[in-house]
Amino acid sequence: MKQQMNLPADFITRTQPLLKEEWDSFLTALDGDIPVSIRINRNKSANLPATKIPWCDTGYYLDKRPRFTFDPLFHAGCYYVQDASSMFVERAIRQYVKGNVRVLDLCAAPGGKSTLIAGLLGKDSLLVSNEVIRSRANILAANLTKWGDPGVVITNNDPVNLGKLTGFFDIVLVDAPCSGEGMFRKDEGAISEWSVHNVKLCKERQRRILADVWPALKPGGVLMYSTCTYNTEENEENVQWIRNELGAEMLPVDTNAEWMTSPSFVEDTVAYRFFPHKIKGEGFFLSVLRKNGSEADFTAPKKARDSKNKKNKADLPPAYKDYISGKEDFTFYSKGEFRFAFPARLHDDLLLLKSHLNIVSEGICLGEFKGKDFVPNQSLALSNNLNRNVFETCEADWKTAVAYLRKESLVLPGQPKGYVLLTYKNMPLGFVKNIGARANNLYPQEWRIRSENIPGEAVNVIG
Ligand code: SAM
Questions:
Q1: Which atom of ligand 1 lies closest to the CA of 113?
Q2: Ligand 1 center to 251 CA (angstroms)
Q3: pLDDT in tens, 24-56
Q4: What is the pTM for the complete model shown?
């Protein structure tokens, strides 16, 4: 039997009056089962689980938690494991993001909301996904690489650096670091770290982050502010502060009574709250605001000079451009021995970002010249724009796929020598270099499955 959760006394004193008669059902839900949900990558997956999450077109509940690590399609970026409540951001994106836009996800690791947004944006939209903590920025880059959208740049910067891109972004999402009250059921650490003092520190930090990034949102642009906590200091009070101090109006998000979202706890504030006793998901808060002013106030940041890049543009043999489907829409360029492709219409934006920010990854890395060899990159293997026709392909069974993801060397009898794309259920996992007696495994060392505890039978979450 599950043990009753030991909630901090101060949390009870502060939260019970907010939830009033709902308090007992809230406590019961905290001791209940944790729902498991995933979001499908519509560019990669056709097989869908049965139970839909109503507010997200690609969100699904699973009956139980499988060992995702041992499902090769998880590593292929066919789906992302995400709490259902967070997927509500989709409603705001669908309602307020029109046409081609520049979007900043400021606090983005590990990438739940960035992968959601990337899948919803138009082809010529730019997503800058930022994470201030370097190790977490690498995880973010890995998750977005797996997701496979080309117009994405991952940066590792303090919000203040992004704020210097005056008026650059149409949409900014601040999914703020918070006191995590909505994660108590999932993460015991959130309970032990919680204190009234920490709530106050979080609220102050959130205001600093918001003020620092605010100049980067263009006048008339949309801010989405979210947390996974319940208290009003980090939520409604901050939203009121944004409206009054930074200058914005609150916007409604279309919702449906059946979804059982809760409204703001504070009068005169428009917000959407998720509670585990009302929906199958964890605690979540979202508010959407439009920055005051019109585009007329906007001063575009200076364009970066392209001299270095022009020099590097021509040296990719045309055959390598065929690695990309829709190559006419891409700019090809080099960085050292590496070769990249980035959506041509967004290339000036990329140059501007490069002159201001610390870039962790960008667009599609095609590969690297090593002597006469051009070694194709993992980013290419998992890209939605990979042109599979130019590569030899080898379909792996589950055991071989797991061995590949553990970075073991493989033997692939009957396969041609050279670079071969390994697939599982027809989805690319990555490249090997087949030298005959064995195939060298090119899977990124830092992504490999480390667990030795391999299940006896195949794990297939989506068919
Ligand atoms: N949006 C992510 C997702 O959906 O997967 C979750 C983001 S998590 C709630 C908040 C993030 O903010 C963490 O990755 C954390 O490292 C980052 N963070 C912590 N302090 C920060 C700061 N001072 N400025 C910006 N981001 C910060």
A1: 4
A2: 23
A3: 999 999 999 999 999 999 999 877 778 999 999
A4: 0.96
For ligand 1, whether the C-beta of 221 sits within 6 Å is no
- Structure tokens of 4? 């009753």
Domain parsing of the chain, residue ranges: 9-32+82-291, 308-387
- Which ranges constitute the DSSP H helices of 301-409? 307-313, 318-321, 347-356, 378-381, 398-405
Residue 109 CB less than 6 A away from ligand 1: yes
Mutation choice for ligand 1 from 88, 106, 107, 154, CB with most ligand atoms inside 8 A: 107
Greatest Cα pair distance in the chain: 71
Q: Report the mean per-residue pLDDT for the chain.
A: 94
Specify whether the CB–CB gap between 255 and 319 falls below 8 A.
Answer: no
Ligand 1 atom, smallest distance to 86 CA: 4
Is the link from the previous residue into 110 a cis peptide, with omega within 30 of 0? yes
CA neighbours within 13 Å on the CB side: how many for 85? 27
Amino acid at 199: V
Residue 81 CB coordination number (10 Å): 16
Q: Is the CB of 90 under 6 A from ligand 1?
A: no
Pocket mutation for ligand 1, best pick of 132, 147, 226 (most atoms within 8 Å of C-beta): 132
Positive or negative, the CA dihedral 105, 246, 87, 71 is positive
Which of 56-60, 127-131, 315-319, 322-326 is the least confident region? 315-319
- Residue-wise pLDDT for 4-28, tens only, equals 678 999 999 999 999 999 999 999 9
113 Cβ inside 6 Å of ligand 1: yes
Which ligand 1 atom lies nearest to the CA of residue 140? 5
Q: Report the C-alpha gap between 251 and 289 in whole angstroms.
A: 5
Residue 167 tokens read as 């008026």
**CA dist., res. 210 & res. 197, Å (int):** 20
For ligand 1, is residue 136 a contact (CB within 6 Å)? Answer: yes
Beta strands 338-343; 330-335: pairing state? antiparallel
∠ CA 119-124-126, rounded to 5°: 70
Pairwise CA distance, residues 224 & 214, whole Å: 12
Distance of CA 389 to CAs 46, 293, 439, Å?
Answer: 20, 49, 21
Q: Tokens at residue 325, please?
A: 């489907």
Fold of 9-32+82-291: Rossmann fold (3.40.50)
Q: Measured from the CB, is residue 159 less than 6 Å from ligand 1? A: yes
How far, in Å, is the centroid of ligand 1 from the Cα of 412?
A: 42
